[in-house]
Write a structure and sequence with these properties.
Strand content: 5-15%
Protein name: PAB-dependent poly(A)-specific ribonuclease subunit 3
Radius of gyration: 31 Å
Organism: Rhizophlyctis rosea
GO biological process, one term: mRNA processing
Domain Pan3 C-terminal knob: 209-346
Largest sheet: 3 strands, antiparallel
Number of strands: 7
Shape: elongated
Number of helices: 13
InterPro entries: Kinase-like_dom_sf, PAN3, Pan3_CK
Structural class: mainly alpha
Order of helices and strands: HEEEHHEEHHHHHHHHHEEH
Length: 350
């Protein structure tokens, strides 16, 4: 697995598995369980309260995506995490196609997003964006769906403003459109400009997300191809890790057998017979030293030996006792048989 992918996955895993320090005063206030959820961790310690009554305000709950950021934090704040003269066009098209797809789904359901702004769009992975806070305004300003068409037109307008802001790297760009359009014409293709101008045009009954999807159609194919390539990459990385479970099970069996202090009233059980061979093999794999006596920590050697043992190849190796008075020539196939026999012996013991 690539170091970058491993680091990203580990950071997300750590974020998901966070637990609160039991010594903190707020720990006792957390419920042990709530509905079907448990092991709670406060993501935000800021407690919103109503200005009038002082009571805790309404809370909207959405899916948690660890280590996410927003498009605003990534590209538009005074110190953006992404530093470049301009946002790469390929990335911008990726954002446009994903947002167009999201709006198509929302508008087709007779709804409006009403949250098309950089601070409400999450970046959860490599160019992967998700709409946040959907449905919030529908609840806070419920009108029975009377103004849905108006809100859908606002979605398209805000979509265009978002493209301008991302392309120019500034939220203020929408307030000086002639200059912003000139910048976009010089740095991006005409297709970007055409989509942006369509979205910024006056609302009408003939203006809809379907037209936007038609305009970005060729770019959607590029997005699909990129998604397939990334899936192929992830599948390749998964294949590298696929067999790790076999090696873990093998090491567990060795752990059950090696250095067992007593079995079946025999205190020397782990030091005799097949078990002694497995002890020497454990030393051969994990306890080798170089000519200066320094430990050899070669992970490749460990993985190679365990893979050969798991398969049971006919290759022979020399096992040496710790006092270097005895040497045994044995094959991986014979060692595999020793493990299976010994582990089954442990399982049969009532």
């Amino acid at each position: 697995m690539s170091d970058k992918l491993r680091e990203d996955l580990q950071r997300k895993s750590e974020a998901v598995q966070q637990i609160m320090d039991p010594t903190l005063p707020d720990y006792q206030r957390l419920p042990a369980e709530l509905h079907v959820y448990h092991s709670f961790y406060p993501l935000d310690e800021h407690r919103e309260k109503s200005v009038k009554s002082g009571r805790i305000a309404i809370v909207f709950v959405y899916d948690y995506h660890p280590c996410s950021t927003t498009l605003y934090a990534k590209h538009l704040n005074p110190h953006p995490q992404f530093q470049s003269a301009s946002l790469p066009e390929k990335v911008l098209w990726s954002y446009i196609t994903q947002l167009a797809s999201a709006l198509k789904t929302i508008h087709s359901a007779g709804l409006a997003a009403r949250v098309i702004e950089p601070s409400k769009i999450l970046l959860t992975g490599k160019n992967r964006i998700r709409l946040n806070c959907c449905g919030m305004f529908d609840m806070l300003t419920y009108d029975g769906g009377k103004n849905t068409s108006h809100y859908q037109q606002e979605d398209l307008l805000h979509f265009g403003q978002l493209i301008v802001a991302l392309a120019c790297g500034s939220l203020a760009a929408v307030h000086n459109l002639p200059k912003s359009i000139d910048f976009i014409v010089r740095h991006y293709s005409a297709d970007i400009k055409n989509v942006m101008l369509y979205l910024l045009s006056k609302p009408s009954n003939f203006k809809g997300i379907d037209d936007v999807i038609t305009m970005v159609g060729p770019r959607i194919l590029n997005e699909i191809n990129s998604a397939h390539h990334y899936n192929d990459f992830l599948e390749g990385e998964l294949c590298k890790e696929l067999e790790n479970g076999r090696l873990v099970r093998l090491m567990c069996k060795l752990g059950f057998i090696n250095e067992r202090p007593e079995f079946d009233m025999d205190t020397t059980w782990s030091e005799t017979g097949d078990r002694y061979l497995l002890k020497l093999f454990r030393d051969y794999v994990f306890h080798q030293v170089d000519e200066t006596g320094a430990p050899i920590t070669d992970m490749a050697h460990v993985v190679q030996c365990l893979n050969k043992l798991d398969v049971g190849v006919d290759e022979k190796i020399m096992l040496t006792s710790r006092d270097e008075q005895s040497c045994l020539i044995v094959s991986y196939k014979e060692l595999k048989s020793c493990i299976d026999t010994t582990f089954n012996e442990l399982l049969r013991k009532p």
